[in-house]
Batch of 4 targets.
Target 1
Amino acid sequence: MLEHKKIKDGDQKSFMSINKNWGDVKKLVKDVRKEIQPLIDHEKENNNKNIKSLEEDITHFTQVMKKREFFQYDCGVKIAIEKLGGVFDELKVFEDKILDYGDNAKKFGNPDLINKAIKDVEGIKITVKAMNELWKHIEFCQTAFTGFYGTKWNDTDPTDMED
């Protein structure tokens, strides 16, 4: 047989006190939420503006980058590869902002807001990597051509030239 323990008067009063305190806490939470909601909305709006500004900065960076010397053949391999390496350092600033603003966007319930900036930076990285590969191939071709220019016609191997 199960025995039911009687709740003592002191325990019952404690239980009632806890319930009353819990109700007070829930009411306090609602009051605090109403009080801080304008601050939350303000910070959310600031973060959204920061993300839009970041997107504009990335777009401007992309436009300016396309005018740099590594997009011009006459700058030469050495300068082009050197300048391309510096682009990744410049992108680090954008990536840091993306992390910061992205974390805030998650906290404010809109994590997808940062996706355009992420895609734009990834697009720049792809372009820079492709340009780097292109310049390495140009360097290879220039080295090969220089070697062929110094070779006498009778000593040339057409299959090497074809390759």
Target 2
Amino acid sequence: MVFVLSLMAVVSLPRLGDFLWSSRTDAAIKDITRTLTYARSSAATSAAVLYLHVDMAEQRYWVSRDPSKESKPERREDLAELHRLPNSVRFRDVITAGRGRVTEGRTTIRFAANGTVETADIHLKESPDRDYTISVRPLTGNVNVEDSYVVQKDLE
């Protein structure tokens, strides 16, 4: 009996680990997607320019009216709060039409007051062989998720 239980544990533990990593990645992707959608709709309804800040060193992101790299994430009633990626997920890079590929430090994605968005790809890495792409389309603000490393044609 103990042998059977041990064998089941040995077989199922790697899968459980994959499941936990995958669920954390799914949650991170959904959170980033919600934040992108929130930033676009908030920019359009308030007729204000907003920025999604991505801090690759700290693995965090937030929405602000401040476009500078010195912007600090603050808890505000009218903007999305500070978010952190889970430990198992990392920003690989962010590619935007305005700044190109950024692999370290901070970068921003601009949301215009008229509802348009700067073309952007956010690339996440879950493990050495698992990449994800979150793409933002400029006119519609639609967000697309791919379970591989993809670059939009507008950004190549």
Target 3
Amino acid sequence: MTARNEKGALKARVLLDYSHDKHVGWITIDNTAKHNAMSLAMWEQLGAVLDQLTHTPGLRSVVLRGAGDRAFVSGADISEFVHRRRSPKDVQAYDVAADGAMDRLYNLEIPTVAMISGICFGAGMALAMCCDIRIADESSRFSVPAARLGVGYPLKEIERLLQVVNPPAALDMLFSGRRLTAAEALAAGVLNQVHPSMDLEGKVEEYVGIVATNAPLTIRASKRIVRELSGRGPADEDTCARLVAACFASADYVEGSTAFMEKRTPRFEGH
């Protein structure tokens, strides 16, 4: 699915670009002619790239963004539904690819950030909800248009939406299908931060830079525990306890305590 570019970074052959710099992985959805709409090939490539991320040493966060400044992701590429979702078998294959990619993104152990500029509709919203943090510019617009298309919005995607916004806000988006401005999305809890367009990339780089300086084991434990507490079932207390214990048993804990006493910046290695 992928090839190497001149700098040695991983690059997908069609419509999706992945590279990493220091501790940050950057995934770019690149289908600007269709406002970065997701095709079946793109879902498959995204899943493959996310699989590779789990084996990338030293990676401490991942940023998902859309190419250009007109869209993050405008939705699924509906133009290919006629031949890609013609039979029940086709529909199942498509859903396996899309759901698999979103599950991989959602289940990454390291922090994930959606960097959003422009349109974030449908599948774009679903991808954004799979990320831990959403940082957008003032041009961004958000919508879950399922009710306008007669599409049933899946349980898993509504569950992820409810982990981000409260039920009344979710129902408003699902009932109306209306487009939220960046300010409305921030107020509803969809977004963590909103910045002027010219500042967006710098603010995202600043945020993931902060994450990269903090203790990876602590961050992974925090992410897992928050997910456990916000899930449908009871939290897995044993797993949470093991993750917390691993932090206290790590060299990073010694480094953090020593750096605090010595009044210097700690150098965390993730073990």
Target 4
Amino acid sequence: MFNLQLGVGIGVYNVNTTGLFGAELGFAVTPDRRGYLILPFQVQFSSGTTVIIVPLGFEYDVPITIGSIKNLYLTPRLAVGYASLQVTGVDTLNGGYLAIEGGAKYVFRGRWNFGFDPVSLAVLFFGDNFQHVAAAVSYRLYVYVGLNF
């Protein structure tokens, strides 16, 4: 699958509210083709600050039916990886990333994805050789559209 994401990151701890743009690539790795190895590349941005996130994760699509509406899925996921914090006038900080996310998606005609992730807790870890580690936490929500191939 391939999805484009657009949303907002609301600063919870040590970070400002940011915009979010992402491109996610997923490869089905379970026999039922509902479990995906995902590469959800994302950029969070605000005035003078950019965070580039390059994680690796797993998503499992849990089918649900609401009335006569089929092809709905709950989409819990976990991702870990690399993050780069770039602040205007300050050195770039490199660190780690952890996200616990969940939402729902509708798959139209088995091909088109339309989704909403209202639960996304992202934690960024930055430090120098793990001696002085600082964390930044944001609550994110985003919509996405994409396709299955």
